[in-house]
Amino acid sequence: MNARYLTLAVAFFAVLGIVQTLPAEARSRDGSLTSLHDVYVPADQVVDGDVNVVFGDAKIAGIVRGDCNAPFGHCTIVDNGQVNGHVYSGADEGTRAFLPWAFGNGVGALAEQDHRLLVKLAGSAVVVLMFLLFPLRMRVALDRVEKHPALSALTGTIAVVAVVPIAILLLISIIGIPLVFLEIAALFAGVWIGTGALALLVGRRLCELVLPASTPSPLLALVLGLVVVSAAEIVPVIGWAVSALVWLVGLGAAILSFIRSVQLDTAVQRAPVGGPPAVTRRP
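-> structure tokens emitted (283 positions)
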């Protein structure tokens, strides 16, 4: 598993996440209509919910039984149109119109996606905090995942499998019960540090593609990488696989960050690998 391929895979899933999160025009489970462009509700149409227009205007000639939300445009009632709820349009009501589900109105299926997005944003804030507290450790983890991505994934998998047996042994010993909480805290800290390392890798590679002549700051690369990784993780159906990959590789990289680079490189070189042995030619 090459670090470049890992970055491209995360970026690919991020594009899918953005497309899934912002559909061009979709009907939610409660009958609401959500669109990215202009919407016209004809006189013979009844919308059993809200009309949400993200970028555009809404013209209502029919009946809307919910609200009409147009944060960056206008919601106009023409002919004998009717809006049973409230009308929110323009910058004066931008916050409420752009996030109507936060005020109890809801947009059905999109609400679940945005809930997941808010959870990812909260997790990203914790990762940024970990970077500010332990910048050196996260950079060392970045070096491990960049040089040894496959070993990082293997180490993370072994760590996850060993969590439960170690916790059981600590519980049986009674004296080690307080260490169970320390184990859980260490697990989450490792995941956050490893996620930050992967985000740094993704953000730095993207900055190199966009601005190859400049060197991005670590914080900028981290934030950009977190946006891409979070977008990839909220993709329906396959988003859980992206999250599992990020957690396993990140946790393994965080664990490997406590091993010196020279010792790790020596151990990797001595480990048996498939294929014929390398032959060193003397000049």
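The chain has two domains: 3-17+112-270, 30-107.
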